[in-house]
Amino acid sequence: MADGTLTIQSVQTAPERLEFIHFQWEVYRDDPNWVPPLISERVEFLDKDRHPFHQHSEVELFMARRNGRPVGTIAAILNNQHNEFQDEQVGFFGLFEVLRDQEAAEALLDTACQWARERNLTAIRGPASYSTNEEVGLLVDGWNGPPVIMMTYNPRYYMDFIEGAGFSKAMDLLAFIVDLTAFGPHGENLPPKLLRVAKKIQERGGFTVRQIDMRHFDEDVERFKTVYNSAWSKNWGFVPLNDTEIDHIAVGLKQMIDPSITVFAEKDGQPIGAMLPLPDISQALIRAYPRPGVPEWWTMAKLVWHWKIRGCVDTMRGYAGGVLEEHRGRGVEAVLMVEMAKHAIPRYRRAEVSWVLENNIMMCRAATMLGGKVYRTYRVYEKAL
Fold first, then answer.
1. Residue 32 domain-assigned?
2. Structural domain harbouring 158
3. What is the mean pLDDT of residues 289-308?
């Protein structure tokens, strides 16, 4: 147990929120695999007037201090949309960062639990910042490199601290890695049988596959919204995104999207499935290395140089997608995966398919079909209150 007086304080002011954000650099100071966030993005994320999550739900930030020095952070979260859609009364914790200080870790987690009890919630889950539509899960296996874009990362000791505080596994989220170089520089080594099967599935299903149309980006965002909110509706932990949230996410992703690998499946002019992969901008971000005290314009200049000029981004992440329920089990997922891979192979060396619920058999099968192997596991914990 660390020496000195431990206190837990609510974070309320803009300077306190900035200190909350900056604390991450203390935790990961000597970790070469941590990808630091853009500080401006984190400031917006925590700003109740700017991030749409705060319009319908409640977040309170807490900081642990020992003799006045920050030693840990946590967010206590009431996601009203989750509880309404899932018919539950659960809270969440997120933005959990702590030094090697078990007393501080347990105090932060206890504070989030008590916050949830005061709102008559029956359980608390996490980490999730703020929901399954954003960063979710604790890395519990696969400390084999930096995380890809919008995936979590944490020290190994977090697992012991969270489990020591009485939390147990609720669900594991899997990340598959696919070696695209195995298919040849132009996809000539994709298994012929796989291509034949994909073609037959498409012909039998009477659907077409096309790339996103960036000239009509807003219209395709609406199509993706239809697929996303419907396709995932029965998945564990799913929360539908409202129009404001999707528009907010779309604005942030528009500059990152690679149109050649973003694909829609359509039948009779209507979307029945979609895949939205993202270039792993984290490969450029870790080289630009945002940090407190460095002007963000300089960080952004380095980010663009590494990404667009040096071309260091050779990995993509299968970020989001799905198939409408009435079209599942017919191979549409596999066709979309194959089409995405065909366009990705000349540009990228690796693809991460993540995250996939451990009980999502169809997506696990589709990732495996392309040679994917589970190489990282993320865990959502739960504790009854």
1. yes
2. 6-173
3. 95
